[in-house]
Specification:
Elements: E1 7-11, H1 15-26, E2 30-35, H2 38-44, E3 50-53, H3 59-63, E4 72-75, H4 81-93, E5 99-102, H5 106-114, E6 119-121, H6 123-136, E7 140-147, E8 150-156, H7 171-175, E9 178-184, E10 187-189, E11 203-209, H8 210-219
Parallel strand pairs: 1-2, 1-4, 2-3, 4-5, 5-6
Antiparallel strand pairs: 7-8, 8-11, 9-10, 9-11
Length: 220
């Protein structure tokens, strides 16, 4: 069964807000974009369900948007920390079900947490950590942290491993990691299903600790 579409409002149509709005729309959600800059409202109006020019720091104006009826609201105001915090407070006072707020700094995160915001995103910090992990391990294509030092990573098969079988690698015995499957020719196969020889640029999905995964990558 397809996932039910959600109604999401995004306050602040800068680079981050627009990126989230477009992706939510692509996934079938109904997005309301809000910004006090008419140019930004006009720019995105044909790409999402609706967009309005509203100053989110004005509680009376914001109340006209009926945000309390939305499944989630994201406050994505850029460098104006005061406006971001005030908008977040206004959204919370409206009784919105789920409030997400983008923070620029650790100090802003602490303030948002103090006023009761539970979902706080620091996109630059998170992306910076993501890039650092990939720079640290050049064989890594992408990864997801599961907490407690455990990671799921995607490793691209280099030319040196082309032609080998998954069975040639004793992942758990020799490396203390697990193979979750292979992406080959845009098709995912579990390790028990994948019987073909690996090809250059196929992608192996692995699970383990950062140090174990890096040891495997460097040993290839």
């Amino acid at each position: 069964m397809a996932n039910k579409s959600r109604n999401v409002a995004i306050i602040g149509l800068g680079t981050f807000g627009v990126s989230v709005a477009r992706e939510l729309t692509r996934m079938g959600d109904n997005v309301l974009g809000i910004d006090d800059d008419p140019a930004r409202v006009t720019m995105i109006c044909d790409e999402i369900k609706s967009s309005v020019q509203v100053d989110a720091t004005d509680d009376k104006a914001l109340s006209q948007c009926s945000l309390e009826t939305y499944d989630a609201v994201l406050v994505s105001i850029g460098e104006n920390t005061e406006a971001s915090i005030l908008a977040a407070m206004n959204v919370m006072e409206l009784g919105c079900r789920q409030v997400w707020v983008k923070a620029q700094t650790e100090t802003q995160r602490k303030i948002l947490k103090a006023i009761g915001v539970h979902h706080i995103v620091l996109p630059e910090q998170r992306f910076g950590r993501h890039v650092a992990q990939i720079i640290h391990n050049p064989h890594l294509e992408d990864f997801m942290s599961l907490g407690d030092g455990q990671y799921v990573v995607m490793v691209e098969v280099p030319s040196s491993l082309a032609g080998k079988l998954l069975a040639d690698f004793k992942f758990e015995k020799d490396h203390n990691i697990s193979c979750m499957g292979v992406y080959a020719d845009s098709v995912f196969s579990g390790p028990a299903e994948f019987k073909d020889a690996l090809k250059e640029n196929d992608k192996i999905i692995l699970f383990g600790t950062r140090s174990q995964l890096r040891k495997f990558s460097e040993a290839k």
